Predict the structure.
Amino acid sequence: MSDANKALTRHFFDRISAGDLSAVDELVSDDYIEHEQVPGLASGKAGTRQLFEMFHAAFDQAALEVDEMIAEGDKVFALVRMTGTQRGEFMGIPATGNTIAVNICDYFRIDNGMLIEHWGVLDAAAMMQQLTAH
């Protein structure tokens, strides 16, 4: 079960990185619970899709690269690096042309081959510093 859940999570990140947002439609449960709600976005599955749409609209070469992954039972922890070059507005910050590499810790719960719950921590201070550097 753990290996299958790791493979599902990696597949999700790979498809999102490739700009294939249908991964949200196919791999995220309709009753998905997002514990790290982004202000201004819808809750659950719809908000997750909005977040990735916003990410790809703002960053050229937007990618989520898995550095480490640990799974046990129905849970998967992933240490991920979010990278890209800001070419459009992102969360109120006008395009800077700056490149980012920001660490994210994602923790998913999986059931029947679907992501059903998520907790996450993004290094927001590092992202702000990289976006506003001159």
User: Anything to note?
Assistant: The radius of gyration is 14 Å. The chain has a mean pLDDT of 96.
